[in-house]
Amino acid sequence: MDARFTCLVFLLFTVVNSKSNNLEITSLHVQSDIRYRFATTLVTSTVANSDNKSVEAKFDVTLPDAAFITEFVMEIDGKLYPGEINEKEKAKKKYETAKKKGQTAGIVSQKPRHTNRFSVDVNIAAESTVTFNLTYQELLERVYGEYEHIIYIDPGQIVEDFKIDVAIHESRDITKVSVPPIRNDILSDSSIDEGKNALVTINRPTTKSAMIHYAPTTDDQKQQSDQGISGLFVIEYDVERKFDGGEVLVRLI
């Protein structure tokens, strides 16, 4: 099966247009590793097509403004297919050829008026399962006295296996770490106490590290809406401030 595809950017899948009701997001996992304010995030989403024919679906995708993609891979029948970047017309021809054969293929395009929004056209073969793996990175900035790590959540349906795990490691003591309730808007007054997300657990293995876990059940998701949870999962934290020359962080590649 030739399942090569063109990839630019994406985060969480939202099924926004499909001719079949037999597409299901069976799992959605987000893992973030924050080291010295530099975040590496892996998003893994599995989509199943229970129909007896291939189905074309359109997904909307959102990334943080400052984020950049480092890897995008589709897993089909146990095989990994890394995304390859092609010219627009060449990519479309490959996608249409695979679609006519009933094969799984995907093409990603940027929405011109929204630099952090993208759409993903995916043709999923009959009675097959596709797993999408995306890795992206971003440097967190300190705003209003704290660092924020934002994860966009909008699967568009209830997901049976849904979880977010974030690990924070800093060179200085972490003085604060909190997760407010899911936000509907990225603009928020940090001076207002939003409370805490009751479904989140925060562990502090050391003074310089923190582990955040969020795994809403299907009932938890239904309490928000029939389409599941939609909004911004935000982690707020800060580190000890010292009156010195600060730090110079060097990343070796």
TrEMBL record:
Q: What is the lineage of its organism?
A: Eukaryota, Metazoa, Spiralia, Lophotrochozoa, Mollusca
Q: Residue ranges of the VIT domain?
A: 9-138
Work out whether the entry's keyword set contains Signal.
yes
Keyword presence, Ribonucleoprotein: no
What protein name applies here?
VIT domain-containing protein
Q: Which PROSITE patterns match?
A: VIT
Q: Which UniProt keywords apply?
A: Signal
Q: Which PANTHER family match?
A: INTER-ALPHA-TRYPSIN INHIBITOR HEAVY CHAIN FAMILY MEMBER, INTER-ALPHA-TRYPSIN INHIBITOR HEAVY CHAIN H4-LIKE PROTEIN
Q: Quick one: signal sequence residues?
A: 1-18
Q: Which organism does this sequence originate in? A: Mytilus coruscus
